[in-house]
Design a protein that fits this description.
By secondary structure, the chain is mainly α. The protein is 81% helix and 0% strand. It is found in: Mitochondrion outer membrane.
């Protein structure tokens, strides 16, 4: 508990000190923090994209080789239900049965 209070005190102290310093220093700290945040976000985004893309590729190869079988009727029904739910949330009304034909 003390560590949390100490860290909060440190953050408050740094922010207060920074707010009293020159505009140039504030801009430099802000730009550095933004660059670092962007750098980390790009790294995490690339790793996530690689993981998702690799998983899709692996599933496709496994399906092609006959290791797994995809029940496309079930997939289409589930996607249709989700699309109906999204449309209902977005527009406030369910899609008409004629729109689904």
């Amino acid at each position: 508990m003390e560590e949390k209070e100490d860290s909060k005190g440190i953050v408050d102290k740094v922010v207060n000190d920074l707010s009293k310093s020159s505009i140039t220093k504030q801009m430099l700290v802000g730009a550095t923090a933004g660059w670092f945040t962007g750098f980390i976000t790009v790294r995490v985004g690339k790793a996530a994209a690689f993981a998702v893309g690799g998983s899709v590729l692996l599933l496709q190869v496994a399906h092609h080789q006959g290791y797994i079988k995809v029940n496309w009727d079930k997939v289409y029904k589930h996607v249709d239900k989700v699309a109906d739910k999204v449309e209902k949330e977005a527009t406030g009304q369910s899609p008409k049965w004629m729109e689904k034909v």
